Amino acid sequence: MAMDLCYTCSFLPQGWSAADWIAVGSPRWAWRGAWVQEEDHIRNQAPADASPEEWLGSRAPETYASQVWQEQVSGPLRVGAEVSFDHRMAPLIVLAPELAANCNSQPQYREHYEVVLYDEGINVWHHTFALGRPRWQQLARHPFAVAAGQRHLLEVETGPAALVVRAAGQQVQVPCPALPPRCFVGLTGCEGTNRFYSFSVYTSS
To answer: How far, in Å, CA of 202 to CA of 73, rounded?
Structure first.
């Protein structure tokens, strides 16, 4: 299927504008996180006084930062991000049908999908929200070795009832019969130091 470029940016200091993005919080935590601009990428903040093991556990909320491109896009679509991670995990692409707001009127996720790259492969999660509580279900786990400290292109392509995920020469197709026809797309860094170098969105012509 032919795809047309809808949006692209590099995360060089002059390669993107924060005004084009919406910072979004997780319903799991009050912490909203922040991005740090580096010479050729952005990264999520991770507490310097915590160990990598704590980033994965008790201090995980303090590593979380997420943002989506400001425009909702209709599928089929392809989203790509060049990413790396310093320890084990977990840069990801997020797809969210709608955004809600927390008690401070700040954007917050409700239902959303996370396509995660980490040192042991690819995970795909479906997050839902009901009765005031977030819940999540693992839709797929595709195990293979992924090197830390190296750049990888993570791509997600949506179809009528599935996601196709590609990274590091691997591909996995994930059934998603309830995938929404329109969504916000973006990036999340969590559970370690995650680096994002570029981002692109293609839609079907």
So the answer is: 9
Show the tokens assigned to 129: 């929200």
CB 63 within 8 A of CB 44: yes
Q: What is the pLDDT of residue 187?
A: 97
Burial classification of residue 181, based on how many CB atoms lie within 10 Å of its CB (0-12 exposed, 13-18 middle, 19 or more buried) = exposed
d(CA 91, CA 94): 10
Q: Are 172 and 140 in contact (CB under 8 A)?
A: yes
| 3-195+200-204 placed in CATH 2.60.120.560 | yes
Which residues, listed in sequence order, are joined to residue 145 by a DSSP beta bridge? none
- pTM for this structure? 0.93
The pairing of strands 152-158 and 65-69 is unpaired
Q: What's the mean per-residue pLDDT of the chain?
A: 92
